[in-house]
Write a structure and sequence with these properties.
The complex is a heterodimer of chains A (606) and B (433). With 606 residues, chain A is mainly alpha-helical. Helix content of chain A is 68%, strand content 0%. In chain A, helix 8 runs antiparallel to helix 9 (158-169), helix 18 (328-340) runs parallel beside helix 20 (360-373) and helix 20 packs parallel to helix 22. The relative contact order of chain A is 0.05. The chains are: A mainly alpha (606), B alpha+beta (433). At the A-B interface, helix 1, helix 3, helix 4, helix 5 and helix 11 of A face helix 3, helix 6, strand 4, helix 9 and strand 11 of B.
Chain lengths: 606, 433
């Protein structure tokens, strides 16, 4: 029976020529059929014979199949599934293919990152990895640092713990910000308090959303509660989706499915882009569907989100999507996402789009993809983009150079730091490169003296009398404000600034009043002045940093609404050029999302 | 002249002490029974977005039941009122491998014509060798895809899509190619049998070939409490995404599937008897006031006509679900074999399996029953989904694995779709696909 079945299967797979009259007769005999002709006079097999026999023989074999029992287990660690399979069915082509897939999954960079982190003993080294590592290395290092901060680290002094928490707070960048907040929230001290406040704000939103989702499915709410969220709340949901209850995540997945099926491209893009910092694994099936069925902009956002999800379902789906990518945006974004998962097949395509002749948005996407696909050899190709007049391109180039971690980029980054709008990103990239080199024990001395951190050099101080008058006007303004006389307060604050240009309070108070009066341009101008005077004092307090972002976002919205896309883009670029590490991560995400939408609107306008 | 039913209804409602509200926005759906319990039908009007969706359980277009409801709502005159111009928003067509001219139809060819094309495809496939491949095979396969484009032959689409995908890969799997050929042969036999006027087992034609049955041919069910336990979906080259939702009746343990063809090409025809599908997040608890079920092997195809969704299961539901699961690998083999006997070929069998334990070998999970019999995961078929299952299985105690049992060479393996695990966050149904 087995020989007959093998012969028929060979014929189906390799061609009918493989099934001779003898094999055909043997197969018929195995099935108990009478021979169609005397021995020696058999007719050649037809395709119908082969498929009919295949069906019948496979049916026979199927009926004989018995459930296998677990073989006696080896006690040592050498027992593998391949051995189990071999014991049950023997090795076969499909198993070899599956083994190759399994091997690919095991080679995922997240596993290598975990191994690397497991080998690091010193919190200082872990912090360096948090600064300069890949997404996976940073994530693994934060998880390891959590043990130290929560008291599991042996011999870890309280002072070290405090210093580590403070250093970790400065690393709240991109995809890792939420995870750092969660770690810090369990730590006492100022960083812990700030993190708890941020987490509590997100929790409040998630609790409200959970109730709304239930009301929606009960028919008490007419509009989808996720779609109804304003942009800032949507960014919060996307950032903290991993902490959301199943009801909320299930509903979010259903919203993605519905918007994809209904081809509501604009709303879908709005929702998917909120997941840019990485989605929860419960959302993977929905995001994969967006990746396969949605329009290009939503697919690009889905790829960006999936690049940060450590899930075995993702790389295969990204590979498939990359094969079918039709536009440069999509191809480059998918190449970057694939490279983040250790598959560099798209690295060449990314480099192909790294040219000054490319449309700016494609060039920026290519630079973003280079963060994952790039290697030290690409430093020379990226450095020229640091000098680009378009600040978003220069910033993307600085981010790529930081990710390469190559010492050859140090000088160029140090020079780029002299551009005020590039300084925070250049400093961040320099820190990344230095951390990487430090870990490798190859940190060279700095070639160019670094400019003083934080504020621009201040001119000579104003006269003491003017300063005193300025403070008096400020106090007067506060008095007016306290009594509800905003116009008078505004005048007093303006006089205070005129007398004492380096006094921060009146500038911020003026911005708040103007914002409330919807005089957005004036509010932004006031904040701009405050940041110019003392950036660190404004941006290193989370509430103030959040206020700055909200004011700029409102201003950008008003510009967009009045068709001034270029002005909105400039304002958002200016905002993203600030050091926003102390602001809430979802607000930063919102600023980035808004910039992308405005940039696209402007492209369309052009 | 006898008083109209609507007038009598208004009087009856007023008798309850209410006055009419200024608008009807609060009304979500209306169900009207026309005729008696035996020969009658239920007409459902349900809000769908900004419009209203109408359905009659008889399934016949322009039936007398709908006419009666029209009369009830006061629309006695023929549709002479000028209708507002409707400009459908048609998204730009996406690139596809099928020439647009060939797929303007969506009309279903007859069984004999389908059988003839399939037979020719099988001949070419076997003559040239399924694993060898040839231009002739590719051309024939493309022709069959064009021939069946946008029709309701969902079962046939599934096997053709599998075959096309396998042939298109750099290293096709011999086992999957053989399964596809075997399934095509079985499908061909069913088509030839039906074209010849010979009887076919109930539900087998729908499973292997597929069609949208009119609602009148379906059995209606009322007051079902269903729990959605898994989802599956795949793009097809036939203009739609095949989306399946698997539901379990919490009272009886009966399994159902909602099969929906979601258009992914702009020219994919909607309407007709195509089921638009229900809505709701995963996992959801569905109170179906009215559903239509196709006869056939489990899971039977179901259409939810009137239902209410709860966005998460109750704790008691999950316990009931676990109790409805199979715990013995031998019983799974028997279930698989019973389906294969009914269909005439090894066919993916939807199961709920509650393993006694999970054995991890080199980080990979294998399900084992109380008798130490093994049900491995189908890693050769779905390595990524199985690897994701491994992750979830390591985190908490697994209570249930939902998926399809497949024949891989000489053993059965489970291709998982979802898991019920007991994690620190409590009992949760986790979707894998």
């Amino acid at each position: 029976m087995r020989a007959a079945r093998d012969a028929v299967e060979r014929a189906v797979l390799n061609g009918l020529g493989a099934l001779g009259p003898e094999e055909l007769a043997a197969a018929r005999q195995a099935l108990g059929e009478a021979p169609s002709a005397p021995a020696g006079e058999e007719t050649p097999a037809t395709a119908h014979d082969a498929t009919r026999l295949l069906l019948a023989l496979c049916g026979r074999v199927r009926r004989e199949v018995q459930p296998p029992e677990l073989p006696a287990q080896d006690t040592d660690a050498t027992t593998t599934l391949e051995r189990l399979d071999a014991a049950l069915v023997g090795t076969m082509d499909d198993e070899r293919l599956a083994a190759a897939e399994r091997e690919a999954l095991r080679r995922h960079p997240a596993r290598a990152a975990e191994q690397r982190v497991a080998g690091l003993r010193e919190p200082r080294d872990l912090l360096r990895l948090v600064t300069g590592g890949s997404t996976w290395e940073r994530r693994a290092a934060v998880l390891r640092l959590e043990e130290f901060l929560r008291g599991d680290g042996r011999g870890f002094a309280a002072a070290d713990r405090k210093a580590t928490a403070e250093a970790l707070e400065l690393e709240r960048e991109g995809a890792l910000a939420r995870e750092i907040d969660l770690v810090l929230a369990a730590v006492s001290g100022a960083p812990g308090g700030r993190a708890r406040a941020r987490v509590a704000r997100a929790q409040k939103l998630l609790e409200r959303l959970e109730k709304d989702v239930r009301r929606f499915w009960d028919g008490d709410l007419p509009e989808d509660p996720v779609v109804a969220l304003d942009d800032e709340a949507l960014a919060t949901l996307g950032t903290f989706a991993a902490d959301a209850p199943d009801v909320v995540v299930g509903h979010l997945g259903e919203t993605l499915r519905r918007l994809t099926a209904e081809r509501d491209a604009t709303t879908l893009e709005r929702v998917v882009s909120a997941l840019a910092l990485g989605a929860d694994e419960r959302l993977v099936p929905s995001l994969l569907r967006v990746l396969q069925d949605a329009e290009v902009p939503a697919r690009v956002h889905a790829a960006r989100s999936l690049a940060r999800v450590d899930d075995p379902r993702v790389p295969a789906a990204l590979r498939k999507a990359y094969r079918h990518a039709g536009t440069p945006d999509e191809q480059v974004a998918l190449a970057g996402a694939l490279a983040a998962h250790g598959d560099r097949r798209g690295a060449g395509a990314v480099l192909d789009h790294l040219g000054a002749d490319q449309p700016p948005h494609v060039l920026e996407l290519a630079l973003e993809a280079l963060v994952a696909t790039g290697e030290p050899a690409n430093v020379g190709r990226v450095i020229p983009f640091l000098k680009q007049g378009r600040v978003s391109t220069a910033r993307a180039a600085a981010a790529a150079l930081g990710a390469f971690g190559d010492g050859a980029a140090l000088e160029a980054l140090e020079q780029a730091g002299s551009r005020a709008e590039l300084r925070p990103q250049a400093e961040r990239s320099l820190a990344q490169v230095r951390a990487r080199l430090d870990l490798a024990g190859a940190l060279p001395p700095s070639a160019v003296p670094r400019p003083a951190k934080g504020d621009t050099p201040r001119p000579a101080r104003t006269r003491l009398a003017a300063r005193a008058v300025g403070r008096l006007y400020y106090a007067l303004g506060l008095l007016w404000l306290g009594t509800g006389r905003r116009v008078a307060a505004l005048g007093a604050f303006e006089l205070a600034v005129a007398q004492h240009p380096y006094l921060l309070g009146p500038r911020l108070a003026r911005a708040r009043i103007l914002l409330r009066r919807k005089e957005l341009e004036g509010a932004v101008e006031s904040l701009r002045g405050a940041i110019r005077v003392r950036a660190a004092t404004v941006l290193q307090l989370p509430d103030r940093a959040n206020f700055v972002i909200r004011a700029y976002l409102r201003y950008a919205d008003s510009c967009t609404a009045s068709g001034r896309h270029l002005r909105a883009l400039e304002a958002l670029d200016e905002l993203l050029g600030y050091d926003l590490r102390f602001a809430d991560v979802d607000l930063r995400l919102e600023a980035q999302r808004r910039r992308e939408f405005v940039a696209r609107d402007q492209r369309r306008e052009e | 002249m006898a008083q109209r039913f609507a007038e009598q209804a208004v009087a009856a409602l007023r008798a309850l002490g209410a006055t009419a509200a200024p608008g009807d926005e609060a009304v979500g759906s209306v169900m009207v029974r026309v005729g008696d319990a035996e020969g009658g039908a239920l007409v459902t009007l349900e809000r769908a977005g900004t419009g209203v969706r109408a359905a009659c359980t008889c399934g016949r277009p322009g039936c007398e039941h709908v006419a009666s409801v029209l009369a009830l709502l006061g629309a006695t005159a023929p549709a002479s009122v000028p209708r507002p111009p409707v400009v459908p928003t048609v998204p730009p067509p996406r690139p596809t491998s099928v020439p647009a001219a060939a797929r303007a139809c969506g009309e279903r060819p007859d069984d004999a014509a389908i059988a003839e094309r399939l037979r020719r495809l099988l001949e070419v496939l076997v003559e040239d060798g399924a694993a060898v491949g040839s231009e002739r095979t590719d051309a024939m396969l493309a022709e069959v895809v064009r021939f069946l484009y946008a029709t309701d032959a969902y079962g046939l689409h599934r096997v053709l899509a599998d075959l096309r995908r396998e042939i298109g890969t750099a290293r096709p799997s011999p086992d999957r190619l053989l399964r596809a050929v075997e399934l095509l042969e079985a499908t061909c036999l069913v088509l030839e049998r039906r074209a010849g006027g010979r009887p076919v087992e109930p539900g087998v034609y729908e499973l292997l070939v597929g069609r949208d049955r009119p609602l009148g041919e379906l059995q209606t069910r009322e007051d079902l409490t269903l729990l959605e336990v898994a989802r599956n979906s795949a793009r097809t080259p036939f203009g739609y995404r095949r989306a399946e939702r698997f539901l379990v009746d919490l009272a009886t343990g009966a399994r159902y599937t909602e099969l929906v063809a979601v258009a992914i090409e702009a020219d994919f025809p909607a309407g007709g008897m195509r089921y638009a599908g229900s809505v709701g997040p995963f996992p959801r608890r569905v109170r179906a006031d009215l559903a239509a079920v196709e006869p056939g092997p489990s899971p039977q195809r179901i259409r939810l006509l009137q239902y209410h969704v709860e966005p998460e299961p109750h704790a008691e539901d999950l316990r009931r679900l676990a109790s409805a699961a199979v715990r013995d690998v031998g019983a799974l083999y028997a279930e698989f074999e019973a389906l294969a006997e009914q269909v005439g070929v090894a066919y993916p069998c939807f199961v709920l399996f509650a393993p006694a334990r999970v054995v991890f070998l080199d980080g990979e999970a294998t399900l084992v029953d109380a008798e130490d019999r093994v049900l491995p995961l189908a890693r050769a078929v779905a390595p990524d989904t199985c690897a994701a299952a491994d992750r979830f299985l390591t985190r908490g105690r697994v209570e249930l694995v939902v998926g399809h049992v497949l024949l891989l060479r000489r053993m059965l393996a489970l291709s998982p779709l979802s898991l019920l695990t007991d994690s620190p966050r409590g009992e949760r149904l986790l979707r894998l696909r």
